[in-house]
Amino acid sequence: MTVKILMLGDVVGSIGCSYLGDGGRLRRFVSENKISLVIANGENSADGNGITPTSARELFDAGVDVITGGNHTLRKKNIYSMLDDDERVLRPDNMTRCPGNGHMKVDVYGYRILIISLAGQVYMDTHASSPFDKLDAVLAEEAGRYDAAIVDIHAEATSEKIALARYADGRVSVVAGTHTHVQTADVCVLAGGTGYITDLGMCGSGAGVLGVKTDCIIRKFRSPAPVTFEPAEGELSATGAVFTIDLPGGRCISAESVKL
Ligand SMILES: [Fe+2]
Questions:
Q1: Which CATH number is associated with domain 2-259?
Q2: Where are the domains of the chain?
Q3: Distance 179 CA to ligand 1 centre (A)
Q4: From ligand 1's centre to the CA of 110, what distance in Å?
Q5: Residues designated catalytic
Q6: What does the pLDDT average to over 4-18?
Q7: What predicted TM-score, i.e. pTM, was given to this entire model?
């Protein structure tokens, strides 16, 4: 059989969360496109960066099944107990000595889908260990206990994301990049059968700069004084990609970018 997995780029602020839920937008897309699993990157889903129990619950209510993490996941302390208690909320697996977990398994039609959240090391302030080594370690640790593996690589450098995808090609079903908020035009299935996109994009406002009000970002670039990020408004959209996976086996047979 085949299953379709929707992965959404960084959800930015309460405006991004509510966009997915408004009028059942995400649930309607899931139903119309026969999606079996929805994964969204939620590390910016709270206003002013980070993730809170409120923003996580809003994403679940909208129809997201699993939330992946990034460099801002630990920014707000009130998420820490949820990271420990709710396996559906991940932080990057290669960020250690911090609350929560970086991978989990979800059942889809009796198949065990392993979801791994990783962070990049290049131009990132995550204190993360090598995502390459961590991927190897998780796949070895879970060997024989999953039917397909999906990776979110939350990273700044395009080269690091492509390199990780080629390193994982044929061993996981999908490697999807997040963090840079602009959807890339390179969605594909690699030679070994791994679906790939360098960046899924963003769920939020396209009117500012990467989902944040333009004047906040310009002030940030022009002055060393700290700036509180406020979500931009208007020109809302949600971008990501749909990966069709063949099971058993886990080979990705098609990949396409989408915009809700
Ligand atoms: Fe990020």
A1: 3.60.21.10
A2: 2-259
A3: 4
A4: 32
A5: 72
A6: 97
A7: 0.97
